[in-house]
Amino acid sequence: MFGREPHWNIDLLLHGVEDKLQYVPCYTADVIERMRLAHHIVRQRLGAQAAYMSQWYNRHVKPAQFCIGDKVCVFNDSVKPGHCPKLQHFYKDVATVTQRINDVTYVVTCPAWRSDRVIHVDKLKCVPNKKININY
Questions:
Q1: What is the pTM of this model?
Q2: Fewer Cβ atoms within 10 Å of its own Cβ: the N or the C terminal residue of the chain?
């Protein structure tokens, strides 16, 4: 109908092997070797990209540490419907650090919450000594 030979499933499996006969075990070994090589190349490139992204992220990171009992503002990026996110304050809740799990993870508690939360240090900001009015 289209003036050429149709492609069958076997043609897709043996792409470019019309001139020589290939047995299934040889073909399987060849496919496995090509997949292993492709996996190795992808892992190398992913590792290089991860190193680049880590370097890019760490450029502007300011390390922060909090002690137990410190007052912190907690970042909450939820947007109220009908309000412009550009004009909203995202550090809404003032909480107290109750436990340090590791260098970047803290357990904080807030009177407005039902239970304590485990929060990454990137989502915490130290409360200034002056009184904060959080009536939104």
A1: 0.54
A2: N
